[in-house]
Amino acid sequence: MHGGGLELALVLLLAAVVAVPVFKRFGFGAVLGYLVAGVVLGPHVLGFVQDSERILVAAETGVVMMLFVIGLELSPARLMRMRKGVFFGGSVQVLLSAGVLGGLLLALDFHWKSALVIGTALALSSTAAGLQLLSEHKALNSDYGRFGFAILLFQDLVAIPLLAAIPLLGGVRNQTLNWLDVVAALGVLALVMLLGRPLLRRLFVVVARTRMPEVFTASALLVVLGTAWLMAEVGLSASLGAFIAGVLLADSEFRHEIESQIEPFKGLLLGLFFIAVGMGIDLHQIAAQPERVALGVAVLLLVKFPLLVVLGRLARLPWRSALLLGSVLWLGGEFAFVVFNEAERAQLLERSDHDLLVAVVGLSMAITPLLLMLLHRLLRAGPAAAAAGHAPDPALDAAGAQRPQVLIAGMGRFGQIVARLLTAQHIPFVALEPDPDTVEDLRRFGNQLYYGDPSRPEMLRAAGGEHIRVFVMAMGDPDSNLRAVRLVRHLYPAARVLSRARNRQHAWKLMDLSSEPFREVLGSSLEVGERVLTALGIPGHVARAHVQRFREHDDNLLRTQHLLYDDEAAVIQSSRAARDELMQLFQADADKGREQTPD
Fold it and tell me: Is the pTM of this model over 0.90?
């Protein structure tokens, strides 16, 4: 393109806006849409962009951010709960798949270093495509969905040392490598891992107190890119640095807020990365050897699909779930594009082989949704889904059962009481609090909560809102409370919403949003009223009955006035009528009590 950077940015954004919705509409996924957009814009078709390498270098920031977000998800506690699925299932899948595929490459006269790198890269599946397919089929919490997620977690871990090993295997750094370089790299790595957690947490505490979202966003980007740059400067992988930074923040109270800030940049830059990869594909060379591309896809399917099915059966999945596991994870992954580019840069891979392998992985991503749709139809036409097979692995069930189904928004006096009750019942929950000082104070007492604004959609998504069954909206500010309830009702209409209400007017507005209001001082005020009655000599059971009668009457009045609360005169009139009615009810109760009292 002969124009400036603005024209290039417009063309890339337009390509993404057009291509991705079209491909997703036909079930092919966003990754393939980005790749095709890159092919069309690249030098081999329309020629809008001639220097794709320059764009690719800049767009690799998306890969760095993706690894940072993956690190945020991998807290030590979560890994322990899923350790069998992650480390047993994932390691067996990667080792067997990489071994078979690498052996086939050796038989085709590839060097052992190239065969090792390419075989391992092809053994990895697409995390983005796999999780998206599971989500579309509502299978994330199924037996094969949980086991597949565990395998994907291990694959993400494997990608880190694989990327770090490519320069060493290619000899890129061996020519200048000395003991000082090794000591410097290991020293920086140890320094980041030892001091990173307290320093990063302190940084975000200070930034959060500014209450300026743009400063928090800048700080999150600074941590990701700064750690990646530091690692790259000492000869390690920039992706490794980003991953370590994510792991260091995985147990932080700022985890969900950081993820919500990084996610939009990660998605956009990762899309740009796939576009740049597509630009580098030489269609003319691939068109000359279509049979090799088709053969590569067939080999990938015939190697990984049976291995995944057998692995699913070893994990005690039913046949149906094992087949679905294979159909979701047999495809190549986005990490393969990164590995192929690094391998070519390290002179482990020829350009022609690079283009061929990228085409194989891209085509596998394209046909996976079709294969999954076909398999679902065949299974529906066959016997009942769970008619045969072993019971699911209890470890996977336990990992899935630990997913919180309650979200408490606001951890002031109101939210803390709800949280204490759930904790006493060993019910997991997610707690969000927009005040950094409150978060810091409660964390000192051992409470598990996260900093973040529940009225932001990206915050709710980062906190796992799609898995929440009950939202407790306990924020003290009525306006913030209403914004958050309105957002939850829009994003998760099937969830139950229980809301703290400041007063009757606030309660009516919450009822407009189909939320159940709980007035914050009603219960304690009625309890004090009951104590007043008993202090005046009224028997305890009579006082309790009066309080219960008052509460039922007031709840009915609240519902009645909800229908006309925008008419102040009507509200006042109904309140007066309700007061007179209540006095008559109490008088009738008193008369009835006197009649029943013996002389």
Answer: no
